[in-house]
């Protein structure tokens, strides 16, 4: 009888890649032993991309055909990068490998099997703009009265439907849980959603959500196709598994139903996208979902210093609903993270700006410095300070503060308070009103010519069409409030307190963030007593931003300002995490949601682990401008021992640099902590001393 000896381990001497020398022991174990269901808990900076890449290369060297490997990522960039690295390792392109995002993979599969669920192979994919346009068509077809009361905009409607579909909830449940202000409109919104679905089906069209939903439908309703695909994909690898929603997790489970060789890589400590319907239970429950799961840990951190990781490890330890973890640093010790309480928001901004300039002088490139914050509105004071000091920056995750539509809307209202003849401002304000289009707005503006004050305008009867009457009356209500106020901060709050709040609520899914922006704007405006000076300042700031973006400075090096969500996956030598206040980080709303506090702490963990060498935590003791409102530092700071930080005490507080103070050409007198007078020459601190320098 002939004998054959079974080999438990693949002979690495027969490979072209030196796996043992190119991977650390934890990574090597994943690459060699991750057959069957496997969960790889990859800590921040632990080389997960490298591990996945080498695993794919190993499978190919082991003789697995490329078309039997499915690599799923969350961005096309990540997929291309991994496939490119595999090509570099093997010296040949892995032709036939299935690699891409969930949506791109779904599109490929549906092109092959769409007829099995009632679509043609040539179905149309409608993008976000087309989807919103179709929602608008449905609203009009149902003759929904959007002028009687604010109705969700097409963008917000689509957001409600999208969240419902990706989270496995009904539209009604989502409205009740997340959009309580629209509860009375639930039945109407549900009718719009139903019509939207039927119109897509009739047009043989799918939106981005449909690509996933229809693939799941195909896999659940057609066992022949499911088994065929599950047989084909012998090995499945999924990156960033902590960010998957319930639909994506179900798709993977169906595709892995035959071979069960599904390797998911992720970090539950970096699950921060529940607002996009990401479900942390997918990764936490993976071992229960897949019987016989092998769990691997990547804990060697190649990014941060031991001092930075000490903060990260201690912080995330406070979470209960998680896998236990502790990152270990490869880098040598440098210095502890700095904890910097500032007197107020302006002082916090001044400290960061001065520190950036000092580090730049020491040789740290601006592009290797980043300032991170929980919400976009936290950056407003800092943006103003950076502009004053001529520090170029790039804003990640949206528009710079003064470029945002809602900020421009409010500024337009203030411009009318100062100059009722401002036609450009009138066009913007009137364009916000229901029933007022371009032609009607132009007719109204013609009637306003010759009026020099808002009081005259609000007391004059204007001729407007029937459709525009409600919108014009809404506008007049706001103008009456503005006519009664003088100070910039009070004027901004008058706009917010009026019908503009209702407009934001109906128009934008993120209206609460926009309201926070405007409250921050009002706080900033409290530093000014002259509306003209304030508007001059804002206008010149916008002009400066345009010059920086499109003019002579376009290609220069810039530091980074970013929300923490947008910073995930990135890293810098020096990181500032600012505005660390209770109620701001964690945000108050998170404390009311199931698992909200732990997700906020994961967000703090993500921010901390973006830094390689230096880390600064800052917060203002007084939360307003020129106020005595004392704030508490974030609980995420208070729950950490003092010995993890280098404490910094700011010795003096500088008054805000308004245009009037620039033009005095006299020293500003302040008191230091010991009551002594210090003279600070403000000349040279500003990038614009006067308008003539433009």
Automatic annotation (TrEMBL):
<protein>
    <recommendedName>
        <fullName>DNA 3'-5' helicase</fullName>
        <ecNumber>5.6.2.4</ecNumber>
    </recommendedName>
</protein>
<dbReference type="Pfam" id="PF00580">
    <property type="entry name" value="UvrD-helicase"/>
</dbReference>
<dbReference type="InterPro" id="IPR013986">
    <property type="entry name" value="DExx_box_DNA_helicase_dom_sf"/>
</dbReference>
<dbReference type="GO" id="GO:0000725">
    <property type="term" value="P:recombinational repair"/>
</dbReference>
<dbReference type="GO" id="GO:0016887">
    <property type="term" value="F:ATP hydrolysis activity"/>
</dbReference>
<dbReference type="InterPro" id="IPR014017">
    <property type="entry name" value="DNA_helicase_UvrD-like_C"/>
</dbReference>
<dbReference type="GO" id="GO:0003677">
    <property type="term" value="F:DNA binding"/>
</dbReference>
<keyword id="KW-0347">Helicase</keyword>
<dbReference type="GO" id="GO:0043138">
    <property type="term" value="F:3'-5' DNA helicase activity"/>
</dbReference>
<feature type="domain" description="UvrD-like helicase ATP-binding">
    <location>
        <begin position="21"/>
        <end position="305"/>
    </location>
</feature>
<feature type="domain" description="UvrD-like helicase C-terminal">
    <location>
        <begin position="306"/>
        <end position="569"/>
    </location>
</feature>
<dbReference type="GO" id="GO:0005829">
    <property type="term" value="C:cytosol"/>
</dbReference>
<dbReference type="InterPro" id="IPR000212">
    <property type="entry name" value="DNA_helicase_UvrD/REP"/>
</dbReference>
<dbReference type="GO" id="GO:0005524">
    <property type="term" value="F:ATP binding"/>
</dbReference>
<dbReference type="Pfam" id="PF13361">
    <property type="entry name" value="UvrD_C"/>
</dbReference>
<feature type="binding site">
    <location>
        <begin position="42"/>
        <end position="49"/>
    </location>
    <ligand>
        <name>ATP</name>
    </ligand>
</feature>
<keyword id="KW-0378">Hydrolase</keyword>
<dbReference type="InterPro" id="IPR027417">
    <property type="entry name" value="P-loop_NTPase"/>
</dbReference>
<keyword id="KW-0067">ATP-binding</keyword>
<dbReference type="InterPro" id="IPR014016">
    <property type="entry name" value="UvrD-like_ATP-bd"/>
</dbReference>
<comment type="similarity">
    <text>Belongs to the helicase family. UvrD subfamily.</text>
</comment>
<keyword id="KW-0413">Isomerase</keyword>
<keyword id="KW-0547">Nucleotide-binding</keyword>
């Amino acid at each position: 009888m002939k004998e054959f000896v079974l080999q438990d381990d693949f002979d690495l001497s027969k490979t072209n890649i030196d796996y043992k020398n190119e991977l650390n022991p934890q990574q090597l174990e994943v690459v060699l032993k991750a057959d069957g269901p496997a969960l790889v808990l990859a800590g921040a900076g632990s080389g997960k991309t490298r591990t996945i890449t080498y695993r794919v290369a190993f499978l190919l060297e082991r003789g697995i055909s490329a078309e039997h490997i499915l690599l799923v990522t969350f961005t096309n960039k990540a997929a291309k990068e991994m496939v490119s690295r595999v090509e570099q390792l093997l010296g040949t392109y892995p032709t036939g490998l299935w690699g891409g995002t969930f949506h791109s993979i779904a599109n490929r599969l549906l092109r092959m099997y769409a007829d099995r669920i009632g679509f043609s192979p040539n179905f149309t994919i409608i993008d976000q703009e087309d989807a919103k346009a179709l929602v608008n068509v449905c609203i009009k077809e149902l003759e929904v009265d959007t002028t009687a009361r604010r109705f969700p905009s097409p963008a917000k409607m689509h957001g409600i439907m999208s969240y419902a579909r990706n989270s496995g909830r009904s539209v009604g449940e989502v409205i009740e849980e997340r959009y309580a202000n629209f509860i009375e409109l639930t039945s109407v919104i549900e009718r719009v959603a139903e019509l939207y679905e039927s119109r897509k089906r009739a047009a043989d069209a799918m939106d981005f959500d449909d690509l996933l939903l229809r693939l799941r439908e195909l896999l659940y309703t057609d066992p022949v196709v499911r088994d065929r695909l599950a047989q084909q994909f012998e090995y499945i690898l999924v990156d960033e598994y902590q960010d998957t929603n319930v639909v994506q997790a179900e798709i993977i489970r169906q595709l892995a139903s035959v071979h069960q060789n599904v390797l998911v890589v992720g970090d539950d400590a970096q699950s921060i996208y529940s607002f996009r319907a990401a479900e942390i239970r997918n990764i936490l429950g993976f071992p229960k979902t897949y019987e016989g799961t092998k769990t691997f840990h990547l804990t060697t951190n190649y990014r941060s210093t031991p001092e930075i990781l000490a903060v990260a490890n201690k912080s995330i330890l406070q979470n209960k609903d998680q896998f236990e973890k502790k990152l270990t640093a490869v880098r040598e010790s440098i210095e502890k993270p700095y904890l910097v309480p500032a007197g107020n928001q302006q002082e916090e901004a001044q400290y960061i700006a001065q520190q950036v300039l000092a580090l730049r002088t020491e040789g740290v490139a601006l592009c290797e410095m980043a300032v991170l914050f929980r919400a976009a509105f936290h950056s407003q004071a800092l943006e103003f300070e950076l502009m004053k000091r001529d520090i170029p920056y790039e804003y990640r995750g949206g528009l710079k503060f003064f470029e945002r539509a809602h900020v421009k809307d409010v500024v337009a209202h203030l411009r009318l308070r100062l100059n009722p003849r401002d036609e450009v401002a009138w066009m913007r304000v009137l364009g916000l009103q229901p029933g007022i289009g371009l032609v009607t707005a132009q007719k109204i503006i013609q009637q306003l010519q010759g009026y020099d004050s808002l009081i005259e305008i609000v007391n004059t009867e204007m001729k407007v069409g029937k459709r525009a009457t409600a919108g014009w009356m809404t506008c007049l209500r706001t103008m009456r409030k503005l006519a009664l106020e003088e100070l910039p901060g009070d004027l901004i709050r008058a706009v917010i307190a009026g019908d503009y709040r209702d407009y934001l609520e109906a128009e934008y899914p993120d209206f609460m963030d926009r309201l926070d922006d405007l409250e921050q704007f009002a706080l900033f405006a409290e530093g000014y007593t002259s509306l003209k000076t304030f508007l001059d300042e804002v206008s010149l700031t916008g002009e400066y931003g345009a010059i920086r973006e499109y003019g002579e400075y376009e290609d220069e090096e810039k530091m980074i300002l970013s929300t923490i969500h947008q910073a995930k996956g990135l890293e810098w030598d020096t990181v500032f995490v600012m505005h660390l206040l209770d109620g701001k980080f964690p945000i108050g709303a998170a404390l009311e949601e199931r698992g909200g506090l732990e997700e906020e702490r994961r967000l703090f963990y993500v921010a901390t682990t973006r830094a390689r060498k230096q880390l600064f935590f800052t917060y203002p003791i007084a939360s307003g401008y020129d106020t005595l409102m004392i704030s508490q530092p974030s609980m995420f700071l208070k729950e950490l021992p003092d010995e993890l930080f280098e404490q910094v005490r700011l010795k003096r507080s500088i008054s805000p640099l308004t245009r009037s103070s620039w033009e005095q050409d006299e020293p500003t007198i302040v008191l230091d902590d010991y009551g002594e007078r210090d003279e600070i020459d403000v000349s040279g601190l500003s990038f614009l001393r006067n308008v003539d320098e433009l």
